[in-house]
Hints:
The protein contains nine helices and no strands. Helix 1 runs antiparallel to helix 2, helix 4 packs across helix 5 (74-93) and helix 6 (98-118) crosses helix 7. The protein folds into two domains: 3-93, Orthogonal Bundle (Rna Polymerase Sigma Factor, Chain: A), CATH 1.10.1740; 98-158, no CATH class. The chain has 160 residues and is an all-alpha fold.
Amino acid sequence: MGLENLWEMYLAEKCIELRNEIVERNLNLVKYIAARLVKTTTLNGVEYDDLVSFGVMGLMQAVERFNPKVKCKFATFASIRIQGSILDEMRKIDWVPRSSRSKIKKARFHIEQLEQELGESVDHYICAREEGLSLSDFYVMTNQHIISIEELNYVDAGAC
């Protein structure tokens, strides 16, 4: 059965089996988006398979809410829903405020940029001054280690 016919049947019946068939046929879109996002995630313990699971939830929502009369391609509509679902779930898991993550990312980027320009390691005092931070705040931002509970349990178990 063609995808167009499948959509027509699903829109007429709203059958879960038909929805699941449409989801299965569009899993590559979820996998593509998850592969892109896994490269940029800073969350410890979040893996590709987790992102795919989060994305499948978004894909199911996209199938249920898609309206072909709007003249938008399903892949375009679904990709926004999939990415949004993944990001929402990642935000739920993350206990570090986004503002802190943003500051850490900015500081690390600045260090890398200065090191590339100078061709050598950069004095942290210079980086802190450039960022308008005290040296202690700079160290907290750039050396902040965030570990998951699973990693803590692993470390504790290994100490016995």
